[in-house]
Structure formats: structure tokens, C-alpha cells
């Protein structure tokens, strides 16, 4: 998974939710990686453009680069 990476706008990532069909999610385009501080902790989200044209906010722990082994 992300292992502390900061994903930059324009990078290509894959979604890994630890099921056998992960490859069916295709390649995603990073739009924005942001972190918000709340009184009880920090929330990180990465907005990504899906292969179908939808923007989805993922936790960085579900993302990796296509050439990474997870």
C-alpha cells in the first residue's frame, strides 16, 4: 500500500482493497492528496479520477503505484 507516500497530482495509481479482483479497478489519476487535522486526529484522503470518469476520495492506504508489489 502507500507506506507513507505522498501522492502528487497527475500520478497514476492503482486501488488495492485486498481482494482477488483488484486488477479490475484499472488505473486511476491522482487529482489531490490532502490531510485535514481534527481535534481527535488527522484524516488523509486522495481524490482520484476513476477509469469511468468519476472522482472518488480514497484513503492512501488503499493506493499504490502500478509497479509496486503489494
What does this structure look like?
The chain has a five-stranded antiparallel β-sheet with strand order 4-3-2-1-5, with no helix packed on it. It has no helices and five strands. With about 70 residues, it is mainly beta. The protein is globular. It has strands at about 10-15, 25-40, 40-50, 55-60, 65. About 15% of the residues are buried.
Features:
globular, single chain, 0% helix, five-stranded antiparallel β-sheet, mainly beta
Brief digest:
By secondary structure, the chain is an all-beta fold. It has strands at about 10-15, 25-40, 40-50, 55-60, 65.
Topology:
Elements lengths: L11 E4 L11 E12 L2 E9 L5 E4 L4 E2 L6
Antiparallel strand pairs: 1-2, 1-5, 2-3, 3-4
Overall pLDDT confidence: 85
Shape field: globular
The quaternary organization reads as single chain
* Helix and strand sequence: EEEEE
Helix content: under 10%
Count of discrete alpha- or pi-helical segments spanning 4 or more residues: 0
Number of strands: 5
Distance between the termini: 6 Å
- In this structure, how is the largest beta sheet organized? 5 strands, antiparallel
Strand order of the largest sheet: 4-3-2-1-5
Uncertain runs are none
Strand content: 35-45%
Amino acid at each position: 500500500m502507500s507506506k507513507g507516500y505522498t501522492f502528487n497530482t497527475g500520478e497514476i495509481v492503482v486501488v488495492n482493497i485486498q481482494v482477488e479482483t483488484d486488477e479490475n479497478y484499472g488505473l486511476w489519476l491522482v487529482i489531490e492528496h490532502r490531510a485535514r487535522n481534527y481535534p481527535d486526529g488527522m484524516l488523509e484522503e486522495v481524490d482520484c479520477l476513476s477509469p469511468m470518469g468519476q472522482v472518488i476520495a480514497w484513503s492512501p492506504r488503499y493506493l499504490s503505484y502500478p509497479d509496486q508489489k503489494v
